[in-house]
Amino acid sequence: MTSATALYDIPGPRTRQRHFAYGILSTVLIAALVGWVVYLLFDTDQFTYAKWNPFAYEGIQELLLRGLGNTLKAFAYAAVLSLALGAVLATGRLSEHRVFRWAATLVVEFFRAMPVLVMIFFIFVALKVHPLPALVAGLTLYNGSVLAEVFRAGVNSVERGQREAAYSLGMRKTQVMTHILVPQGVRAMLPAIISQLVVALKDTSLGFLITYEEFLHAGKLIASNLDYDLPFIPVVMVISPIYIGMCMLLSWFATWVARRQRRSPKTEAVDVGPAATGTLLPGGPSAPR
Q: Are 78 and 136 in contact (CB under 8 A)?
């Protein structure tokens, strides 16, 4: 049974009716917008056989599959390197040594403020790096800097008393981070991590600007060789659902990981037995009998 809180009151009958009306109105508006778009597509003959027949050719299908494979390859490299760079920079940001903390802060703030497209172009043009390494490097520097702040915020979100309790037991800082703070902080980090990885996946489409043959580049190449009006619309209608499906797959994976963490015996509550007589601490005095 739900109850009112300091920030939210349970709506009354009139409020529920008003919210129901808002929901109906929003649904009608969205349906009208979708219907208008579908009408425009039919009105401009976007579903005719001539415009969709080229996608049945084996050469075009191979081109799209090769572009999709290149997109996934660039994303895999960028995701792994971004997570590693984010962990390193977050460690520097959390360091007790001022020099490391300032250096990590400078790197994070610089690459977070720099547009990712500018970094990709600079690495590709000025440093004369090949398209794939240039794309991966730009995505890694930007997303790694953002993930560093995500990791830092996740670690700092753990209740301070747990850190102090761990130190009082004689644990070193590395042990506190790896056994206490990071495992609990991952729960708070996970949605933001997945959101940033989705951003990295979508930003791989910037590779077509530096002639990297990824998925969008393949679609652009197909559309530029079709000889009818508005050739980009069928191509976008093919490419967009695949991008959306990949992003939804990442979100599903995050949900699965979070559910698995909740079922993990390492994260479940452990029953603590009653106190018994005996030695209180290793090497310490025995409890009075």
A: yes
Q: What is the CA radius of gyration of the chain?
A: 27
Torsion angle of the four alpha carbons 157, 192, 114, 138, in this order, in degrees rounded to the nearest 10: 120
Task: Measure CA 206 to chain center.
Answer: 17
* pLDDT 10s digits, 41-55: 888 888 888 888 888
Mention every residue, 6+ apart, whose C-beta is less than 8 A from residue 230. Answer: 44, 46
β partners of residue 95: none
Q: How many helices (H) and strands (E) does the chain have?
A: 11, 0
What's the mean per-residue pLDDT of the chain? 83
What is the enclosing helix (H) or strand (E) of 130? none
Tell me the pTM. 0.76
Convert the pLDDT of each residue in 85-111 to its tens digit. 999 999 898 888 889 999 999 999 999
Number of neighbouring beta carbons within 10 Å of residue 124: 22
